[in-house]
Amino acid sequence: MKTHFIPVADPSRQYFDYAEAFQAAAAHVLEGGRYILGREVNVFEAAFARYIGVRYGVAVNSGTDALIVALKALGIGAGDEVITVSHTAVATVAAIELVGAVPVLVDVQPDTRCLDPDLLSAALSERTKALLPVHLYGQPADMAAIMAFAKDHHLWVIEDCAQAHGASVAGRKVGSFGDLACFSFYPTKNLGAFGDGGAVLTDRPKLAEQLRLVREYGWHERYISEIPGMNTRLDELQAAFLNLKLGLLTEENQKRREIAYHYLSRLEGSQFGTPVMAEGTEHAMHLFVIETDHRDKLQEYLSQNGVGTAIHYPVPIHLQPAYLGRLRGSDSLPVTERLAKRILSLPMYPQLSIEDVDRVCDLLLQFARSS
Ligand SMILES: *Cc1c(COP(=O)(O)O)cnc(C)c1O
Q1: Of 218, 239, 366, 225, whose CA–CA distance to 305 is shortest?
Q2: Where are the domains of the chain?
Q3: 132 alpha carbon – ligand 1 mean position (Å)
Q4: Residue nearest to atom 2 of ligand 1 (CA)
Q5: CA of 162 to the centre of ligand 1 (A)
Q6: pTM for this structure?
Q7: pLDDT tens sequence across 131-175
Q8: What is the CA(371)–ligand 1 centre distance, in A?
Q9: CATH of span 12-246
């Protein structure tokens, strides 16, 4: 019997479901003649900020740039320390170094796989300026504890929400807790463009102003640089696509969670570690990540049986060639290092059918019986 291949993510499915609308939106921008920072971007910035529950949105060129612009807007630079995690996309740590600051790494909690607030005290120094928690895989980090620590020690909080568009805690969306929140619209993210994109959100007018200055050459008025800035603008085409996609996000996140609950019910009691879906917390289910001692063999087995998987991420940042042996905190990240050997991301996207989830689970349970 021939079965179809199940990819780990499939961003073109959404395009095909709404092809006419996307094409019309593109034509509208192309015919309008304004291609950078125009109406579509303005509409998107306001709508996305409202969706998350803050007042201001500043759209930029990528999630990495969102982090850089956020750090620069806070005046964080040479000699300043920013506490973050090693169990994340390289962008989180890279951005801190790209503004000249020093990343200080702490370990993650084994259940949420996000920054462990109990480890913040030991990582704190006189140079600490900010905390940069990551809501990894769509799982909210423990923002209550992180915000309390930040308040006690007068630190800024920048949330890396690149994988958590729409995740919430007690009805409040991630991205509305910290001083600034950074989002990526990379095509496979829960809210993804057909290209690169990102945004920084904030509820503070002064910071919003600063973000806008940093985004475009320090311009308040065109051609007059008030501060040294950069160029990281979102284009109108991507903003037009994002305006359409934002309208689909709530329903798509709900579909992701239904898929996740199906995985969880099928895998309950098996040898596989599964994501926690805590009471009162809405996981954005960007990635459905299981844990197993036999990760590489399992990945091979699934691949041979037509199921795509991925590893987010195979090598923690502090063990990658560019960073090896030189990042603060690198010597005490046992949970991070253990996760990197055991994690596997299963197929997860809103259009994934329950039949396909069942096929993946059948294979997982078969593998478990034979290993
Ligand atoms: C995707 C991602 C980024 C970077 O976003 P880009 O748009 O690819 O630059 C940053 N942090 C995390 C956690 C991410 O997953």
Answers
A1: 366
A2: 12-246, 249-370
A3: 13
A4: 162
A5: 5
A6: 0.98
A7: 999 999 999 999 999 999 999 999 999 999 999 999 999 999 999
A8: 35
A9: 3.40.640.10
